[in-house]
Amino acid sequence: MAREFRFREEAGWSHADEVLLCLDTGSWRIERPVVDEDRCTYCGLCALYCPVQCMVNKENHFEPNLAFCKGCGICAYECPRKAITMQTQEDS
Asked: Which domain, by its residues, includes 50?
């Protein structure tokens, strides 16, 4: 008997298309991640560790969807090449 799953993936993965997952950040984010495409090796660790799964695959790098990014900085912390830095919203 085939097992039927409630979600498309069995891990903590979000496609940000469900009602509770589409939470816009509003104006409360203090910092935002900025990706240096030249340093990025396209390893995908930022997308894997992003708690809200807002990293968008751009075919040669990942970049955050700022409509959903909370500014937590986990992507920058986990990037082994330090290709992601956190900048204050005023710098954007």
From this structure: 19-91
Q: For the chain, what is the domain count?
A: 1
Whether residue 53 contacts residue 15, with contact meaning beta carbons closer than 8 Å, is answered with: yes
Cβ-contact 75, 64 below 8 angstroms:
yes
| pTM: predicted TM-score of the whole model, two decimal places | 0.71
Burial of 79 (0-12, 13-18, 19+ CB in 10 A): buried
Q: In sequence order, what are the beta bridge partners of 35? A: 84
Instruction: Specify the pLDDT at position 13.
Output: 55
How many angstroms separate the CA atoms of 21 and 31, rounded?
20
Residue 65, domain CATH: 3.30.70.20
Residue 61 lies in a domain: yes
Q: What would the pLDDT profile of 42-73 be if each residue is shown by its tens digit?
A: 999 999 999 888 899 998 999 998 888 889 99
